[in-house]
Amino acid sequence: MKYVLVSGGVISGVGKRVIASSTGLLLKTIGLKVSSIKVDPYLNVDAGTMNPKEHGEVFVLSDGGEVDLDLGNYERYLNITLTRENNITTGKIYQHVIERERKGDYLGKTVQVVPHITDAIQDWIEKVARIPVDDTGEEPDVCIIELGGTVGDIESMPFVEAMTQLRRRAGRNNFLQIHVSYVPVINGEQKTKPTQHAIQAARSAGLMPDLIACRCERPLEPSAVNKIAHFCFVDVSQVLVVKDMPSIYQVPMLLEQQGLIPLLSDILALKDVTISSKLLEKGRHTWAQWKSLTDTKGRRIDTVSIVLVGKYIELHDSYLSVIKALEHSAMRCARELVIEWVDSEHLESKTRDTDPAKFHKAWHNVCTASGILVPGGFGTRGTEGKIAAAKWARENKTPYLGICLGMQIAVIEYARHVCGLTNATSEEFNAQAAEKIIKFMPEVDKKTMGATMRLGLRPTLFQPGSEWSRLRALYAGKTEILERHRHRYEVNPAHIETLEKGGMSFVGKDDKGERMEVIEIKDHPWFVGVQFHPEYLSRVLDPSRPYLGFVAASAGMLDQITKEYMDGHGPPGAAEGVLNGAANGVGHLSMNGSSGLF
């Protein structure tokens, strides 16, 4: 097993996840099997209870693991399926070691950070790195390890020590470290001193960076590159310049152009790895598609404007997978994506009374958008604004997509304004309400928050008579689909008949026919709600179908896209498909951008 460690210095948030994912993608293009592990040095056992406004979204894996959002990036870039064990936290490691100590596994020894915690980290990595993650069912050749935070953080030190030991344990030509640093520009001059100090700190902690990835707003001047190479004891070729790019999906090409593949091959002795001709051909095909899809030179493309009505919009990473799914779909439709962020509270009457400017601006964005998206969320705050947005979309024939809570919002709105249930609400909003259209799922633990929701990959069956469904057509007429879930509430079965008589179609249900999974309104260009989170399975070369349909409808090209998928010309599994499209400018690789996508 070979390992690539991606660490960071100077500041956090400089793009380790994209550099790690891009490195993995380049390794796959030469036929290697690649896995990924994310190390998060916080005490939480998992990310499930974290506030999205503080930490970003909680990404859900097929096995139901609630993990750091970076694992979503790995899956999207590498087209792999990870497990909850691919996200290592301090909480998990200490819990594991303490449980072993309680069982007497340490035979009365004094349990310490070194060697017991550091050994547990290494053992965990070595075990998980060998788990198959793709359709080959074979052990990966390379594991990309991203170390969260920055070297020097006190909470990271056990992991740093473990990585220094893992390099020795792995042996020569089996371990490579990429250290990501930031090169600021002050008064027009590129400053290399922060990077020099970051490398010095890494070396003093025992880490020995083989490559230095310099994040910068503009290409580094030769003098700056030479200075970094000189003072950080590496060759000039080992300094990678990762400048701001129009799209983060162009970062792999940027790294390829600087010779990353030969560098990896040389340091890791990849010539000694047996590579199957089938995987090599697949890797080349994927790389050709990736470059074709993301190269925007000389192309003029129209825009599609999507309003995202949310309650955590201060931190865009709260909706990272949603943004990515929209980007993938916009690229597939050859459209430039423009996202208008609307705080759902600003659509409510209380805002009209207290801050009319915010109220009218929010409604202007909603009323002029090509499509309206209401994503998932929790709690009562801002829900009346979401209901108002859903009502506008339904009445004005504006394409609408509701995800999880967004689907429940659409059901409540329909019950109130079409079915005459004027007091319709959710048990989440009012537990004592008489007309609970949405109710708490009986099997879910109400007392414990962590890992108690309905989680992971579960089947949805399209119902008889739903052949007209626009969404079903994008799944090429399949009767059963598998999507990932994360929710505690469901549509109340007691009100299904009333809603159906009013014209709402529950075109998808769970495998028992008891839980409503997909809603759709027939007499509408695109009004779809899904209880699952399709964004978790969206891939760069294989967009999520609910998002693709939504974006295509918003761009006025749903019939064209649907025909391509029905005729078998949509990508059936990422690498094998006919893709026609151009990249968009969203996901700008910039230190100054507010998107937080890199």
From TrEMBL:
GO terms for molecular function: ATP binding; CTP synthase activity; identical protein binding. It catalyses: UTP + L-glutamine + ATP + H2O = CTP + L-glutamate + ADP + phosphate + 2 H(+). Pathway: Pyrimidine metabolism; CTP biosynthesis via de novo pathway; CTP from UDP: step 2/2. Catalyzes the ATP-dependent amination of UTP to CTP with either L-glutamine or ammonia as the source of nitrogen. Residues 2-269 form the CTP synthase N-terminal domain. GO terms for cellular component: cytoophidium; cytoplasm. One of its GO terms (biological process) is 'de novo' CTP biosynthetic process. The keyword RNA-binding does not apply. Residues 315-546 form the Glutamine amidotransferase domain. SUPFAM superfamilies: Class I glutamine amidotransferase-like, P-loop containing nucleoside triphosphate hydrolases. Belongs to the CTP synthase family. InterPro entries: Class_I_gatase-like (IPR029062), CTP_synthase (IPR004468), CTP_synthase_N (IPR017456), GATASE (IPR017926), GATase1_CTP_Synthase (IPR033828), P-loop_NTPase (IPR027417). Its EC number is 6.3.4.2. Keywords: ATP-binding, Glutamine amidotransferase, Ligase, Nucleotide-binding, Pyrimidine biosynthesis. It holds the Pfam family CTP_synth_N. This is CTP synthase.
